[in-house]
Amino acid sequence: MRTVLRKALGQAEREGLVPRNVAGPSAAPRVVAKEGRTLTPEQARTLLAEVRGERKEALVTIMLAYGLRRGEALGLRWDRLDWTAGTLLVSHSVKRIKERPGQD
User: What is the C-alpha separation between 62 and 68, in angstroms, rounded?
Assistant: First the structure.
C-alpha cells in the first residue's frame, strides 16, 4: 500500500496537484517472511500413494512435479499444453470468493 501511495502522490506532485509527496520520505515497514510449507520427499510419496487411482491423482502429480499452488493447478487449461514442446504454460489461476450475507 505504501508503494502505491508513494507513486500516486509522486505523480500528483509532478502534476502540481499537491505541494509535496508526504509519503516519499517514509520508511518501508519491516515484514518478517514466513517460512514456506513444503513437503518432504517422503511426504510427497505418501501423498501420491494416497491418491493413486483417485480422480485427483493427475492433478496432485502435476502440482507436486511443477510446484503449483492449488489455484494455479485448478486454473490450468488444455490449450496451454504443448505436447510437441513438452511444455505447460500456467497462465490462469482461480480464487475462492466467500459469499457475503445478503448476496444472491
Answer: 8
Is the pTM value of this prediction over 0.70? no
Mean pLDDT of 1-14: 92
**All three cell numbers of 100:** 457475503
**21, 6 Cβ separation under 8 angstroms:** yes
Residue 47 has a CB neighbour count (10 Å cut-off) of 15
Upper half-sphere CA count for residue 104 (Cβ side, 13 Å): 0
Whether residue 76 contacts residue 93, with contact meaning beta carbons closer than 8 Å, is answered with no
The grid coordinates of residue 91 equal: 497462465
pLDDT digits (tens, 9 = 90+) for 39-86: 999 999 999 999 999 999 999 999 999 999 999 999 999 999 999 999
Q: First vs last Cα of the chain: how many Å apart?
A: 31
